């Protein structure tokens, strides 16, 4: 079992991302575009095209070879075929270049079509040595702070003094994000490509060393090195640079879904979500949400809570934001006495005071009165105040007062304040830029505003304990229920008294030893209830006949547990990409129908388990529902920790372990069914 490993070698990316000299190798349209884009962005350093047959490219003196360059370049765009790329990378590393973007494709991403691709990628990494490379199969980067870029296509970035960084594995998505017209200042855009050498987490770690970067947005297809991500999360939290992620690639459920309930409930995407939760990185599910979240974080950083206030001049908009917030973790606190006095003074007696607030249009065009009213919806208990304003696309001159009022609220109160358009197209780029310049967040879209606010309120400190990295041995053995219970019992999990028996005589003898009533189960079936192979409330006299009716060669006879307050599922599955995923949820035969679960990565602490259990829909049963006795929470937590103890002790070989159900009584928590699969 591996709980910690040394992270990959940290390379200095500062020369690559903040270069003074840029070399472009190749003579095609892509390479010409790199030079043009550098010139357009006002790059103040030197540009050195390298081409054996050209003397000048786009107005820049061209050099015949690397040996002819005035010195070792800080950043290099390599726009030649994959075989030549490897040779050039080796030469650049030998001459001490700062780093390179490998544009060519046909490496590991093409292995399915070309079996040599994986080997070529390994050769590329070996050629680079300690010199950082991006890619292969990537566009490179744009540094809009310094006007430095290695980027062979169009982009929409403008020079900024400070802003957010965006990292994505997809070059096409990166291009699209640079074209945003939402008032978001983008400092860096970096594409990662194959990440043959330098991972996305390592790139992000280098970018947050630039004090001009205010937040980082990550478009993630997969986590390549968990230790790099753990190091990034810890570093970013310490520096106060928030990270948010759009994680894609929810995959099909694991192959073992046919064997356990846990596997059918916790596919690999549950592992990805649990890993992000552990890192304290909020997850988003749409590109507009990612951009709006970055905009909020750029202005204000993480929010202290999910308490929000909304003011609009329409009851329809007040109702809309209230309804759209129902399934979020955002709250509308009631107005304080101070707020009500301030609002009444600004609005007069004709407006009903609530949060969300419809302030009507009595004070429209009176910028000072609007600012006083809007300021009345701010306060120490409010993390974010929304003013819902839709600017018409025809003539918006009558809405200048709204922009001025918002800017005045921010200037006068210092409160976190946003202007929100219900539809993205109802807030222009010019207005968005004006609001951003005055410290007001211009949200394009009400749904996007709520998603961004929830994400900014959900930033957390990362867990310091590294995740458990599982072994890779193929699971070929499924332990019997009795064997599984015995293995878990050795780690502190409470199980009922039980015996296995073959034949009616042996069943009768076992029944005489144990205390009835019994649960009698067929042995050797994955889902016993589906085969009518679980019989409950069996007395000693009927035990032999019941065992015969079940029909399996062997049966498990078990003392029944009474006084159950709730049934839980406790399962752990091996997720090769993320570690061991612990799933807690409503247990019993309806587990997969209810789908009431929460997932975490091992290891966990007792407090983590207790908090997770409170998020379940069945949590009221555990605390005592409608006067019924509560379950013993201490015993439940001890049972889960016992399962974890078994997993950590067998991490090199274990594929999955499941208890379903864990019967929770006022006195104890008992595993009445168990499954273990391992190598």
How would you concisely characterize the structure shown here?
With 679 residues, the protein is of the alpha/beta class.
Q: Would you tell me which CATH topology of the largest domain applies?
A: Rossmann fold
Mean pLDDT reading: 91
CATH architecture label of the largest domain: 3-Layer(aba) Sandwich
Query: Helix amount, in percent?
Result: 25-40%
Structural class: alpha/beta
Q: Enumerate how many helices there are, as a single number.
A: 23
Distance between the termini: 14 Å
| Low-confidence runs of at least 5 consecutive residues | 1-8, 251-259
Oligomeric form? single chain
The tally of strands reads 30
Q: Using the CA coordinates, give the radius of gyration.
A: 31 Å
Please give the CATH class of the largest domain: Alpha Beta
- Under CATH, the homologous superfamily of the largest domain reads NAD(P)-binding Rossmann-like Domain
Q: How would you write the strand order of the largest sheet? A: 9-8-11-10-12-13-14
Give the biggest beta sheet: 7 strands, mixed
Shape descriptor: flat
Number of domains: 4
